[in-house]
Amino acid sequence: MREQTQNRGSRMVYDLVVKDGTIVSSIGISRADIGIQDGKIAQIAPALNGREERSAEHMLVLPGGVDPHVHIQMPTAMMTTCDTWAGATRAAALGGTTTVVDFVEPNYPGQPLMQAFEERRALAQGQSAIDYAFHMTLCSSAPETLRQVPEVLEAGMPSFKVYTTYTGFHLADEELLAVLRCVAAAGGLTIVHAESDAIIQDAVARLLAEGQQSVADFPLSRPEIAEKEAIQRVLTLADYANAPVYIVHVSTRSGAEAITNARKKGQPAWGETCPQYLLLDESRIMTGQFEGAKFVCCPPLRTPDDQAALWSALQAGDLQTVGTDHCAFNFIGQKQLGKESFLNIPSGLPGIELRMTLLYTYGVKNGYLSLTDWINRCCTTPARLFGLYPHKGDIQPGFDADLVIFDPDWRGMATQSALHENVDYTPYEGFELSGRVKSTLLRGRFLVSDGEWTGAPPAGKFICGNP
Q: What is the value of pTM for the model shown?
């Protein structure tokens, strides 16, 4: 505590006190004040005093959200996503997220991993409104690549992403085994985009042979069994390699069940799903209109039965996190490139701003999640898994004062015009919403106040994760 911190009588006077809120943490709910000093949570108790005091009466006070899966200002072979670090992270803060975990992808085969990291970090540095961390992407299992894994861990990136599909990213089983063993030996966590490349390639070839290239044909190109096969295979390989594994964007009943079964056997495996798989289904794509391109993402949106199964798995704790997989492409000028063939539609959906409110509206209010479940899935567990705990993801003394004051009584509707994502649509247009973010603090500093951006200059910084 700073020496100049004053006392009012025998009581500490903090830089800021958030008063009279209902605090929702990973372990429970309480009514208290939060004293903040030097950007940290200093005390949680009734009747605290501060130089500045902000009432949270009738509000929920939450940890700042930790989104474990975003793609901001991401370059692809054809284009770059339509958002920027400045814009996307401001939208995230307005939606109650104070930390994102993005990805480092090598810019050319064989690029040194730390060089790729420095180039990626340079895009965010001085631009990001909120704190950020990275997963390192491994596109090769070559010895010279795997030798760099310990250095990446030491630099604060304990998680390594691999793919079982996509040209330039796809690792064969023997390569995946080598990565799993190497990352586990170094104390890291392998995260996997799990879809069967063989099934996808065969399905695409069959569709093209039949002249089926419309938006409505897209889900057929990446069928449910492609995810089922790949998740089961990845879990089997990870079990054989004695390596922990995290499966991203689980979209199917069968995928969730495979993770559940592995965990019941004691395997260190975790699963993530996303709001789009909980709330949108394939009928959005299969309308017969090109507007369906707005909903093209990989893996595809699935069936209502899959949605129900994902909610059940999330409720039971068999899926542990909710990330957005935010990957924003404009419909006009970007998604429209696929008018002649779904193969040319850039894949991805925006969603960085609405995650917390959507999970409150359709998870908490519908009885799938308790308030503490909500916080664990969206804040605490992502922070724990990716080495950001005990600084991020919870409300406890000593943690960063990343806080969200949330109005549970607000009612409204999702519209693109009301959001702050730099994209020309939202996939959640017209969705009814319960609750909204009233204020967001990053390390004790207000980024959002009374639902409006405060104009604070970018203060986000790279956060090192610990294995």
A: 0.97
